[in-house]
Amino acid sequence: MSKIALVHNEIFQNHGTPEAHPESPERVAAIDEALHRSELMLELDRISPREATTAELLSVHRDFYIQELEAKHLRAQESGGLIQLDADTFMSQRSFATAKLAAGGGLEAVRNVLTGGHKHAYVVVRPPGHHALADRPMGFCLFNNVALAARYAQRELNLKKVMIIDWDVHHGNGTQEIFYDDPSVLFLSFHQYPFWPPDMGWYTEDGLGNGKGYNINIPLPAGTGDRGYLAAWDAIVKPVCFEYQPDLILLSAGYDAHSADPLGQQQISTQGYFLLTNRLVELSEASNCQIVCFLEGGYNTRSLADSVVATVKVLNAHDKSHRDNLEAFGGIYGAEVGPATHDRNPFLVDDRIAEVRQYMAKYWRSLRTSS
Ligand SMILES: [Zn+2]
């Protein structure tokens, strides 16, 4: 059986942020430690990242923006300190190279999954990417790793349709903007709403021109737990995926909707990420397409690391009975996994899911029948 390709390397600790900044190098160090502790590393195929080329970056980002970042990189090198790009996004001396490696790591993961015989892939990189716009950095992100991977799959590997699912607690505004008028990339984002970025991510933001209907936002109220996320998955993600029939699924895997996260107010448990990944793998098997996951947010290093391990364990399971067994033994690793969580206000969550379904039903036949 083919293995999971893992992009993971200590070089992703080289992107420096200020002291006490939540997007810290310790995040990937904690994931590294947890993957080793779980003994998963023995079963994974670790692949080396490479820097994305300028031509590859230009498939998503504007030329002047790449040049601007390069100029700021030179300034960071001269000063030896941090350069502030916006309210909370920074560059250190090695950030430019690290960001190009994060982007290129995603491209290598896609290539390995589609042509290298790997089953699925997980890309543990930083800086994260889903807030990065075509022409500017935002929200800790420099290059939009998942968007670059979608373009690479289409341009270099001739895939027609890519589905991007984003379960980070924040709206994936960068990815939304990049593909807003493009029906060949279906973007679907779960997020806490209202939240950051402000005034973005409502479900009426549904695409533009030919892309109308191919941007799906599921804005969930604060306090949504495993139950609500799973209900939204079953009511919206699953039917839409079957109808769209993507050639590849990319996941913007943020873990800041975890109940232990210091930034988000959602209530997903580690078990919840396990169950969501189970749904994701079922969907990929039923749709006959593969999955590449990209690390986005997640700022409690313990819940982040445990949840990444949970995701990778499910991706790595041989088949459904193996996955069910993991669940039966609480076997993500040891007794670290809490019970599945409920929503603070399930009625509010169910109403919102029904509203989104009803609104998007004009584009998707599969949402017209009762769930
Ligand atoms: Zn986030």
What structural keywords apply?
single chain; 371 residues; alpha/beta; Arginase, Chain A; two-stranded antiparallel ribbon; 11 helices; 10 strands; 40% helix; binds zinc ion
List the helices and strands and how they pair.
Elements: E1 5-7, H1 26-37, E2 45-47, H2 54-57, H3 63-79, E3 83-84, E4 90-91, H4 95-115, E5 121-123, H5 145-155, E6 162-166, H6 173-178, E7 185-192, E8 215-220, H7 226-244, E9 248-253, H8 270-287, E10 290-295, H9 301-316, H10 320-328, H11 346-360
Parallel strand pairs: 1-2, 1-5, 5-10, 6-7, 6-9, 7-8, 9-10
Antiparallel strand pairs: 3-4
Helix pairs in contact: 1-9, 4-5, 7-8, 7-11, 8-9
The structure holds zinc ion.
How would you describe the overall organization of this protein?
This protein is an alpha/beta fold and 371 residues long. The protein has a single domain, classed as Arginase, Chain A, CATH 3.40.800.20. The chain has 11 helices and 10 strands. An 8-stranded parallel β-sheet has the order 2-1-5-10-9-6-7-8, with helices on both faces. Strands 3-4 form a two-stranded antiparallel ribbon. Strand 1 (5-7), helix 1 (26-37) and strand 2 form a beta-alpha-beta unit. The protein is globular and about 60 Å long. The model has no long low-confidence stretch (mean pLDDT 94). Bound molecules: zinc ion.
Structural domain tally: 1
CATH architecture field: 3-Layer(aba) Sandwich
Q: Any idea what the radius of gyration is?
A: 19 Å
What is the general shape?
globular
Helices and strands, in N-to-C order?
EHEHHEEHEHEHEEHEHEHHH
Q: How many DSSP helices?
A: 11
The major β-sheet equals:
8 strands, parallel
How much helical structure, as a percent, in the residues? 25-40%
How many DSSP E strands?
Answer: 10
Query: Which superfamily, in CATH terms, is the homologous superfamily?
Result: Histone deacetylase domain
**Secondary structure category:** alpha/beta
Strand order of the largest sheet: 2-1-5-10-9-6-7-8
Mean pLDDT: 94
Q: Hetero groups bound?
A: zinc ion
What percent of residues are in strands? 5-15%
Q: Low-confidence segments, ≥5 residues, pLDDT <50?
A: none
- The separation of the N and C termini measures 35 Å
CATH topology: Arginase, Chain A
